[in-house]
Amino acid sequence: MNNRIEELYLEAEADIRNNNYHEAFQKHENILYEEPTYAPSHNSLGWIYKTQLDNYEKAENHFIAAIKSDPQYPHPYFHLASLYIDIEKFNELARHLEKCLQVNTVDKGWIYYRYGMMDELKSNYAHAIRHYKKAILNSLSNEKIKDYQADIERCQTKQEILEEGKEVKENQG
Fold first, then answer.
1. Is the pLDDT reported for residue 167 higher than 80?
2. What is the pLDDT of residue 117?
3. Separation of alpha carbons 173 and 161, rounded Å
4. Measured between alpha carbons, how far is 14 from 21 in angstroms, rounded to an integer?
5. Same domain? 79 vs 112
6. What's the confidence (pLDDT) of residue 82?
7. DSSP per residue over 108-136, as a string?
8. Which residues touch 60 (CB under 8 Å, ≥6 apart)?
9. Which of 73, 164, 89 shows the shortest CA–CA distance to 121?
10. Which of 9, 21, 90 is nearest to 50 (CA)?
């Protein structure tokens, strides 16, 4: 990799921050033309496809390409998990998170948080709470710990509502 590619990458990222997605897209495509395995550009193109173009298939392909190109580059792991949650591909998400646990550059607290989200979306609140607690145990950020505690409280509330609903049904039956 050369300095020109790195400079072009930084320009493309500045374009994204300034909402100049077309310019960023073109710059990342140019980078991949010269350096087809440049993980950061695959990741950024995946992000553009996901968030700006709603093309989840191309986004997924770019995130996977980024991971294959540089397995230690953490960002595509985060984005791919987010994509799987958005499109409710929970089986793929579970396999992906298992892989993430083996990558030393991916925050383990974040992984357990995503497991918790998945379980919560599937209305499996007890499992979600366990995962959010694991996220707390693996976090060094007081801010994130507070967020995870709020996630636990939300799940406890949902769990109580479900239990109340079951009791009402049983009393009506």
1. no
2. 98
3. 18
4. 10
5. no
6. 97
7. HHHHHHHHHHHHHHTT-HHHHHHHHHHHH
8. 46, 80, 83
9. 89
10. 21
Range of the domain at 162: 107-173
Give the pTM.
0.91
Q: Can you read off the two tokens belonging to residue 162?
A: 């479900």
- Which has the closest alpha carbon to 80: 23, 130, 95, 157? 95
How many whole angstroms from its chain centre is CA 105?
14
Split at pLDDT 50, 70, 90, the class of 1 is: low
Q: Which residue type does 157 have?
A: T
Instruction: Out of 60, 89, 118, pick the residue that ends a domain.
Output: 89
pLDDT digits (tens, 9 = 90+) for 22-65: 999 999 999 999 999 999 999 999 999 999 999 999 999 999 99
Residue with tokens 């950024």: 44
pLDDT tens per residue across span 55-105: 999 999 999 999 999 999 999 999 999 999 999 999 999 999 999 999 999
Domain assignment present for residue 54? The answer is yes
Let me know the angle formed at the C-alpha of 139 by 85 and 45, rounded to the nearest 5 degrees. Answer: 40
End-to-end CA distance of the chain: 70
| Domain C-terminal end among 89, 115, 142 | 89
Three-state SS for 74? coil
* Local structure of residue 138 (DSSP, 8 states): T
Compute the distance between CA of residue 59 and CA of residue 80 in angstroms, rounded to an integer.
Answer: 8
